[in-house]
Write a structure and sequence with these properties.
Length: 418
Protein backbone atom coordinates (compact mmCIF):
# COMPACT_ATOMS: atom_id res chain seq x y z
CA UNK A 1 0.00 0.00 0.00
CA UNK A 2 1.53 3.32 -1.09
CA UNK A 3 1.76 6.15 1.44
CA UNK A 4 -0.55 9.17 1.16
CA UNK A 5 0.93 12.68 1.14
CA UNK A 6 -1.24 15.77 1.45
CA UNK A 7 0.21 19.05 0.28
CA UNK A 8 -1.14 22.57 -0.01
CA UNK A 9 -0.01 25.21 -2.48
CA UNK A 10 0.01 28.89 -1.63
CA UNK A 11 1.48 32.07 -3.02
CA UNK A 12 0.66 35.50 -4.33
CA UNK A 13 -1.78 36.07 -7.18
CA UNK A 14 -0.29 35.15 -10.59
CA UNK A 15 2.70 33.36 -9.07
CA UNK A 16 1.61 30.25 -11.00
CA UNK A 17 0.22 27.88 -8.35
CA UNK A 18 -2.53 26.48 -10.55
CA UNK A 19 -0.14 26.20 -13.51
CA UNK A 20 2.34 24.30 -11.34
CA UNK A 21 -0.32 21.81 -10.23
CA UNK A 22 -1.55 21.47 -13.80
CA UNK A 23 2.03 20.74 -14.88
CA UNK A 24 2.43 18.15 -12.11
CA UNK A 25 -0.77 16.41 -13.19
CA UNK A 26 0.05 16.63 -16.90
CA UNK A 27 3.68 15.47 -16.69
CA UNK A 28 2.86 12.63 -14.28
CA UNK A 29 0.14 11.38 -16.71
CA UNK A 30 -2.65 12.02 -14.20
CA UNK A 31 -5.06 13.76 -16.60
CA UNK A 32 -7.88 12.08 -18.53
CA UNK A 33 -8.11 12.81 -22.25
CA UNK A 34 -11.50 14.52 -21.94
CA UNK A 35 -10.12 16.79 -19.19
CA UNK A 36 -7.21 17.80 -21.42
CA UNK A 37 -9.53 18.40 -24.37
CA UNK A 38 -11.76 20.63 -22.22
CA UNK A 39 -8.72 22.63 -21.08
CA UNK A 40 -7.49 22.97 -24.67
CA UNK A 41 -10.91 24.25 -25.76
CA UNK A 42 -11.03 26.75 -22.86
CA UNK A 43 -7.48 27.92 -23.63
CA UNK A 44 -8.45 28.49 -27.27
CA UNK A 45 -11.59 30.37 -26.26
CA UNK A 46 -9.51 32.65 -24.06
CA UNK A 47 -7.20 33.42 -26.98
CA UNK A 48 -4.13 31.63 -25.56
CA UNK A 49 -1.67 30.17 -28.05
CA UNK A 50 -0.74 27.38 -25.60
CA UNK A 51 -2.63 24.88 -23.41
CA UNK A 52 -3.26 26.72 -20.14
CA UNK A 53 -2.73 23.97 -17.55
CA UNK A 54 -3.90 26.27 -14.74
CA UNK A 55 -7.46 25.62 -15.94
CA UNK A 56 -7.19 22.05 -14.61
CA UNK A 57 -7.47 23.34 -11.06
CA UNK A 58 -9.35 26.63 -11.42
CA UNK A 59 -12.67 24.80 -11.44
CA UNK A 60 -15.03 27.68 -10.67
CA UNK A 61 -16.20 29.65 -13.67
CA UNK A 62 -15.49 32.87 -11.74
CA UNK A 63 -11.89 31.69 -11.28
CA UNK A 64 -11.43 30.92 -14.97
CA UNK A 65 -12.83 34.29 -15.97
CA UNK A 66 -10.66 36.22 -13.49
CA UNK A 67 -7.66 33.93 -13.79
CA UNK A 68 -7.40 33.59 -10.00
CA UNK A 69 -8.02 30.89 -7.40
CA UNK A 70 -10.96 31.67 -5.07
CA UNK A 71 -12.00 28.39 -3.45
CA UNK A 72 -9.82 25.52 -2.30
CA UNK A 73 -9.49 23.09 -5.22
CA UNK A 74 -8.63 19.51 -4.30
CA UNK A 75 -6.91 17.25 -6.84
CA UNK A 76 -5.80 13.65 -6.53
CA UNK A 77 -3.03 11.85 -8.37
CA UNK A 78 -0.61 9.01 -7.76
CA UNK A 79 2.83 7.81 -8.79
CA UNK A 80 4.20 4.31 -8.22
CA UNK A 81 5.78 5.62 -4.99
CA UNK A 82 2.98 7.66 -3.40
CA UNK A 83 -0.60 8.88 -3.54
CA UNK A 84 -1.14 12.63 -3.38
CA UNK A 85 -3.96 14.97 -2.38
CA UNK A 86 -3.34 18.56 -3.47
CA UNK A 87 -5.14 21.52 -1.90
CA UNK A 88 -4.77 24.50 -4.22
CA UNK A 89 -5.43 27.39 -1.85
CA UNK A 90 -6.17 31.03 -2.78
CA UNK A 91 -3.57 33.78 -2.66
CA UNK A 92 -5.80 36.77 -1.90
CA UNK A 93 -5.83 38.10 1.66
CA UNK A 94 -9.66 38.00 1.68
CA UNK A 95 -9.47 34.21 1.32
CA UNK A 96 -7.20 33.58 4.34
CA UNK A 97 -9.90 31.31 5.82
CA UNK A 98 -9.78 29.14 2.67
CA UNK A 99 -6.02 28.76 3.04
CA UNK A 100 -6.41 27.81 6.72
CA UNK A 101 -9.03 25.20 5.77
CA UNK A 102 -7.06 23.73 2.88
CA UNK A 103 -3.72 23.62 4.69
CA UNK A 104 -4.95 22.35 8.08
CA UNK A 105 -4.31 18.67 7.23
CA UNK A 106 -1.30 19.15 4.93
CA UNK A 107 2.04 17.36 5.40
CA UNK A 108 3.84 19.75 3.04
CA UNK A 109 3.23 23.40 2.13
CA UNK A 110 4.34 24.67 -1.29
CA UNK A 111 4.85 28.42 -1.30
CA UNK A 112 5.42 29.90 -4.76
CA UNK A 113 7.21 33.17 -5.47
CA UNK A 114 7.69 34.90 -8.81
CA UNK A 115 11.42 35.09 -9.54
CA UNK A 116 10.95 38.60 -10.97
CA UNK A 117 9.06 40.01 -7.96
CA UNK A 118 10.80 38.05 -5.20
CA UNK A 119 9.20 37.81 -1.76
CA UNK A 120 6.04 39.85 -1.45
CA UNK A 121 3.64 40.45 1.44
CA UNK A 122 1.51 37.43 0.53
CA UNK A 123 4.54 35.10 0.37
CA UNK A 124 5.42 36.03 3.93
CA UNK A 125 1.81 35.69 5.06
CA UNK A 126 1.49 32.20 3.60
CA UNK A 127 4.78 31.09 5.13
CA UNK A 128 3.57 32.39 8.50
CA UNK A 129 0.22 30.59 8.15
CA UNK A 130 2.08 27.37 7.24
CA UNK A 131 4.14 27.66 10.42
CA UNK A 132 1.07 28.60 12.50
CA UNK A 133 -0.72 25.49 11.19
CA UNK A 134 2.38 23.43 12.07
CA UNK A 135 2.84 22.06 8.55
CA UNK A 136 6.04 20.01 9.08
CA UNK A 137 7.67 20.57 5.67
CA UNK A 138 7.81 23.74 3.61
CA UNK A 139 8.94 23.95 -0.04
CA UNK A 140 9.67 27.35 -1.56
CA UNK A 141 9.26 27.13 -5.34
CA UNK A 142 10.96 30.03 -7.09
CA UNK A 143 8.80 30.06 -10.23
CA UNK A 144 9.16 31.75 -13.64
CA UNK A 145 12.94 31.24 -13.61
CA UNK A 146 12.79 31.33 -17.43
CA UNK A 147 11.85 35.03 -17.19
CA UNK A 148 15.07 35.91 -15.31
CA UNK A 149 17.30 33.91 -17.69
CA UNK A 150 17.77 31.10 -15.15
CA UNK A 151 19.88 33.44 -13.00
CA UNK A 152 21.54 31.57 -10.12
CA UNK A 153 22.28 34.92 -8.50
CA UNK A 154 18.58 35.87 -8.44
CA UNK A 155 17.63 32.43 -7.07
CA UNK A 156 20.21 32.66 -4.24
CA UNK A 157 19.04 36.19 -3.42
CA UNK A 158 15.40 35.04 -2.95
CA UNK A 159 16.53 31.91 -1.09
CA UNK A 160 18.63 33.94 1.41
CA UNK A 161 15.87 36.50 1.93
CA UNK A 162 13.32 33.77 2.65
CA UNK A 163 15.66 31.86 4.99
CA UNK A 164 16.23 35.07 6.94
CA UNK A 165 12.45 35.59 7.26
CA UNK A 166 11.93 31.91 8.19
CA UNK A 167 14.18 32.29 11.25
CA UNK A 168 11.31 34.26 12.88
CA UNK A 169 8.93 31.36 12.22
CA UNK A 170 8.73 27.80 13.46
CA UNK A 171 9.68 25.96 10.26
CA UNK A 172 11.37 22.61 10.83
CA UNK A 173 12.20 21.61 7.26
CA UNK A 174 12.71 24.06 4.37
CA UNK A 175 13.58 23.20 0.74
CA UNK A 176 14.03 25.74 -2.06
CA UNK A 177 13.60 24.69 -5.72
CA UNK A 178 13.96 26.81 -8.90
CA UNK A 179 11.14 25.96 -11.36
CA UNK A 180 9.32 27.05 -14.47
CA UNK A 181 5.77 25.73 -14.11
CA UNK A 182 4.82 26.87 -17.62
CA UNK A 183 7.62 24.87 -19.30
CA UNK A 184 7.92 22.10 -16.68
CA UNK A 185 11.54 22.74 -15.62
CA UNK A 186 12.40 20.98 -12.32
CA UNK A 187 8.73 20.09 -11.80
CA UNK A 188 8.69 16.37 -12.63
CA UNK A 189 12.24 15.95 -13.90
CA UNK A 190 15.51 17.85 -13.49
CA UNK A 191 16.10 20.66 -15.98
CA UNK A 192 19.20 21.25 -18.14
CA UNK A 193 18.53 24.99 -17.73
CA UNK A 194 19.69 24.91 -14.08
CA UNK A 195 23.05 23.07 -14.10
CA UNK A 196 23.99 25.04 -10.96
CA UNK A 197 21.06 23.55 -8.98
CA UNK A 198 22.07 20.32 -7.26
CA UNK A 199 18.78 19.38 -5.60
CA UNK A 200 15.95 17.15 -6.82
CA UNK A 201 12.89 18.01 -8.90
CA UNK A 202 9.68 18.97 -7.10
CA UNK A 203 7.92 15.65 -7.72
CA UNK A 204 10.98 13.65 -6.64
CA UNK A 205 11.13 15.69 -3.42
CA UNK A 206 7.41 15.10 -2.76
CA UNK A 207 7.89 11.37 -3.35
CA UNK A 208 10.88 11.16 -1.01
CA UNK A 209 10.07 13.59 1.83
CA UNK A 210 9.85 11.63 5.09
CA UNK A 211 6.48 12.12 6.79
CA UNK A 212 6.06 8.96 8.88
CA UNK A 213 7.72 10.52 11.93
CA UNK A 214 5.69 13.76 11.69
CA UNK A 215 2.70 12.17 13.43
CA UNK A 216 2.70 11.82 17.19
CA UNK A 217 3.38 8.12 17.82
CA UNK A 218 4.07 8.59 21.55
CA UNK A 219 0.84 9.87 23.10
CA UNK A 220 -2.04 7.40 22.69
CA UNK A 221 -5.19 9.37 21.84
CA UNK A 222 -8.36 7.63 20.69
CA UNK A 223 -11.52 9.80 20.71
CA UNK A 224 -14.59 7.54 20.68
CA UNK A 225 -16.90 8.45 17.82
CA UNK A 226 -19.54 5.74 18.02
CA UNK A 227 -20.45 2.82 20.29
CA UNK A 228 -21.27 -0.33 18.30
CA UNK A 229 -23.90 -2.53 19.95
CA UNK A 230 -25.50 -4.80 17.30
CA UNK A 231 -29.04 -5.85 18.28
CA UNK A 232 -28.91 -9.49 17.23
CA UNK A 233 -28.65 -12.82 19.06
CA UNK A 234 -25.31 -13.63 17.42
CA UNK A 235 -23.74 -10.38 18.68
CA UNK A 236 -25.49 -9.88 22.02
CA UNK A 237 -22.15 -9.61 23.90
CA UNK A 238 -20.44 -7.38 21.33
CA UNK A 239 -19.47 -3.87 22.40
CA UNK A 240 -17.02 -1.98 20.19
CA UNK A 241 -15.85 1.62 20.17
CA UNK A 242 -15.40 3.08 16.69
CA UNK A 243 -13.20 6.07 15.94
CA UNK A 244 -10.05 7.39 14.29
CA UNK A 245 -6.71 7.11 16.08
CA UNK A 246 -5.47 10.63 16.81
CA UNK A 247 -2.06 9.73 18.23
CA UNK A 248 0.21 6.96 19.49
CA UNK A 249 0.03 3.25 18.74
CA UNK A 250 -2.70 0.93 20.07
CA UNK A 251 -2.18 -2.85 20.42
CA UNK A 252 -4.27 -5.68 21.85
CA UNK A 253 -3.23 -6.27 25.47
CA UNK A 254 -2.40 -2.59 26.09
CA UNK A 255 -3.50 -1.17 29.44
CA UNK A 256 -5.72 1.86 28.78
CA UNK A 257 -7.80 4.46 30.60
CA UNK A 258 -11.10 6.04 29.54
CA UNK A 259 -11.68 9.75 30.17
CA UNK A 260 -13.59 11.38 31.80
CA UNK A 261 -14.56 8.39 34.02
CA UNK A 262 -10.97 7.33 34.76
CA UNK A 263 -11.87 3.62 34.49
CA UNK A 264 -9.09 1.37 33.23
CA UNK A 265 -9.12 -1.80 31.12
CA UNK A 266 -7.07 -3.64 28.53
CA UNK A 267 -7.59 -3.73 24.76
CA UNK A 268 -9.06 -7.08 23.79
CA UNK A 269 -8.99 -6.57 20.00
CA UNK A 270 -8.67 -3.94 17.29
CA UNK A 271 -10.74 -4.38 14.14
CA UNK A 272 -10.96 -2.66 10.77
CA UNK A 273 -13.28 -3.17 7.81
CA UNK A 274 -10.73 -5.72 6.55
CA UNK A 275 -10.60 -7.69 9.81
CA UNK A 276 -8.52 -7.68 13.02
CA UNK A 277 -5.15 -5.88 13.14
CA UNK A 278 -2.21 -6.25 15.53
CA UNK A 279 -1.74 -2.49 15.91
CA UNK A 280 -3.43 0.80 15.05
CA UNK A 281 -1.90 4.25 14.62
CA UNK A 282 -2.96 7.66 13.28
CA UNK A 283 -4.91 8.22 11.10
CA UNK A 284 -6.42 4.69 11.00
CA UNK A 285 -10.20 4.29 11.47
CA UNK A 286 -10.74 1.25 13.70
CA UNK A 287 -13.05 -0.36 16.25
CA UNK A 288 -11.53 -1.05 19.67
CA UNK A 289 -12.94 -3.69 22.02
CA UNK A 290 -12.07 -3.62 25.72
CA UNK A 291 -11.77 -6.62 28.07
CA UNK A 292 -14.08 -5.06 30.69
CA UNK A 293 -17.59 -3.71 30.36
CA UNK A 294 -17.19 -0.09 31.38
CA UNK A 295 -19.23 2.96 30.57
CA UNK A 296 -17.85 4.52 27.38
CA UNK A 297 -19.77 6.90 25.09
CA UNK A 298 -19.22 9.26 22.18
CA UNK A 299 -16.84 12.07 23.07
CA UNK A 300 -14.87 10.00 25.58
CA UNK A 301 -11.12 9.59 25.10
CA UNK A 302 -9.12 6.36 25.39
CA UNK A 303 -5.51 6.98 26.43
CA UNK A 304 -2.76 5.46 28.59
CA UNK A 305 -3.12 5.75 32.40
CA UNK A 306 0.36 7.27 32.71
CA UNK A 307 0.10 9.49 29.61
CA UNK A 308 -3.11 11.48 29.66
CA UNK A 309 -4.11 14.59 27.69
CA UNK A 310 -4.80 17.83 29.54
CA UNK A 311 -8.34 17.86 30.94
CA UNK A 312 -9.82 21.31 31.33
CA UNK A 313 -12.55 23.82 30.62
CA UNK A 314 -10.40 26.94 30.26
CA UNK A 315 -8.30 27.04 27.09
CA UNK A 316 -5.97 29.52 25.44
CA UNK A 317 -6.10 29.35 21.62
CA UNK A 318 -5.24 31.01 18.33
CA UNK A 319 -8.28 31.26 16.09
CA UNK A 320 -9.02 32.29 12.52
CA UNK A 321 -12.45 33.93 12.24
CA UNK A 322 -14.25 32.64 9.14
CA UNK A 323 -17.69 34.20 9.25
CA UNK A 324 -18.71 36.98 6.87
CA UNK A 325 -21.41 38.10 9.27
CA UNK A 326 -20.44 39.32 12.72
CA UNK A 327 -17.18 38.91 14.60
CA UNK A 328 -15.92 37.21 17.73
CA UNK A 329 -16.28 39.41 20.81
CA UNK A 330 -15.82 38.98 24.55
CA UNK A 331 -18.83 37.47 26.30
CA UNK A 332 -20.05 35.67 23.15
CA UNK A 333 -21.47 32.14 23.42
CA UNK A 334 -20.70 29.60 20.67
CA UNK A 335 -20.81 25.84 20.19
CA UNK A 336 -17.41 24.12 20.12
CA UNK A 337 -16.51 20.82 18.43
CA UNK A 338 -13.25 19.24 19.58
CA UNK A 339 -12.37 15.74 18.27
CA UNK A 340 -15.69 13.86 18.83
CA UNK A 341 -16.75 15.99 21.79
CA UNK A 342 -19.30 18.78 21.50
CA UNK A 343 -19.92 21.51 24.05
CA UNK A 344 -20.72 25.20 24.37
CA UNK A 345 -18.05 27.83 24.89
CA UNK A 346 -17.94 31.33 26.34
CA UNK A 347 -15.42 33.81 24.90
CA UNK A 348 -13.77 35.10 28.08
CA UNK A 349 -11.38 37.49 26.34
CA UNK A 350 -9.70 38.42 23.07
CA UNK A 351 -6.02 38.78 23.97
CA UNK A 352 -4.76 40.30 20.73
CA UNK A 353 -5.24 40.42 16.97
CA UNK A 354 -2.26 39.27 14.92
CA UNK A 355 -1.13 41.11 11.81
CA UNK A 356 -0.08 38.14 9.67
CA UNK A 357 2.05 40.36 7.43
CA UNK A 358 4.18 42.11 10.06
CA UNK A 359 3.61 39.58 12.92
CA UNK A 360 2.62 42.59 15.07
CA UNK A 361 0.27 41.88 18.01
CA UNK A 362 -2.50 44.44 18.38
CA UNK A 363 -3.37 44.11 22.08
CA UNK A 364 -5.96 46.90 21.91
CA UNK A 365 -8.23 44.72 19.73
CA UNK A 366 -11.26 43.21 21.46
CA UNK A 367 -12.83 41.47 18.46
CA UNK A 368 -11.86 39.50 15.33
CA UNK A 369 -13.59 39.85 11.96
CA UNK A 370 -13.53 37.80 8.73
CA UNK A 371 -10.09 36.32 7.94
CA UNK A 372 -8.50 37.84 11.06
CA UNK A 373 -6.33 35.71 13.34
CA UNK A 374 -5.91 36.30 17.05
CA UNK A 375 -5.48 34.82 20.49
CA UNK A 376 -8.56 34.16 22.64
CA UNK A 377 -9.47 32.59 25.97
CA UNK A 378 -12.47 30.28 26.08
CA UNK A 379 -14.37 28.50 28.84
CA UNK A 380 -16.30 25.37 27.86
CA UNK A 381 -19.37 23.87 29.54
CA UNK A 382 -17.71 20.43 29.82
CA UNK A 383 -14.02 19.53 30.12
CA UNK A 384 -12.10 18.92 26.87
CA UNK A 385 -9.36 16.29 26.58
CA UNK A 386 -6.70 18.10 24.60
CA UNK A 387 -3.01 18.47 23.82
CA UNK A 388 -1.21 21.59 22.67
CA UNK A 389 -1.61 22.00 18.88
CA UNK A 390 2.17 21.92 18.46
CA UNK A 391 2.20 18.44 20.01
CA UNK A 392 -0.84 16.95 18.27
CA UNK A 393 -2.68 18.69 15.42
CA UNK A 394 -5.80 16.53 15.89
CA UNK A 395 -6.35 16.82 19.65
CA UNK A 396 -5.07 20.40 19.60
CA UNK A 397 -7.60 21.79 17.13
CA UNK A 398 -11.29 22.66 17.24
CA UNK A 399 -14.01 24.55 15.40
CA UNK A 400 -16.51 27.09 16.71
CA UNK A 401 -20.11 27.02 15.48
CA UNK A 402 -22.82 29.69 15.56
CA UNK A 403 -25.74 27.94 17.23
CA UNK A 404 -28.33 30.15 15.53
CA UNK A 405 -27.23 29.36 11.95
CA UNK A 406 -25.21 26.17 12.52
CA UNK A 407 -22.41 27.74 10.45
CA UNK A 408 -18.76 27.06 11.27
CA UNK A 409 -17.46 30.50 12.21
CA UNK A 410 -13.89 29.82 13.39
CA UNK A 411 -11.06 27.30 13.41
CA UNK A 412 -8.84 27.15 16.48
CA UNK A 413 -5.47 25.85 17.61
CA UNK A 414 -5.01 25.19 21.33
CA UNK A 415 -1.94 26.79 22.95
CA UNK A 416 -2.61 25.41 26.45
CA UNK A 417 -4.73 25.97 29.55
CA UNK A 418 -5.89 29.56 30.12
Amino acid sequence: MSELLRFATAGSVDDGKSTLIGRLLFDSKAIFEDQLEAVERSSEAMGADYTNLALLTDGLRAEREQGITIDVAYRYFATPRRKFIIADTPGHIQYTRNMVTGASTADVALVLVDARKGLVEQSRRHAFLASLLRIPHLVLCVNKMDLVDWSQERFEEIKDEFRHFATKLDIADLTVIPVSALHGDNVVSRSANTPWYEGSSLLHHLEEVHIASDRNLIDVRYPVQYVIRPHSDDWHDYRGYAGTVAGGVLKPGDHVMVLPSGFTSTIESIETSDGPVVEAFAPMAVTVRLADEIDVSRGDMICRPNNQPTVGQDIDAMICWMSETGSIVEGQKLAIKHTTRSARALVKSVQYRLDVNSLHRDESAHSLSLNEIGRVRLRTTVPLFYDEYRRNRTTGSFILIDEATNNTVAAGMILGPA
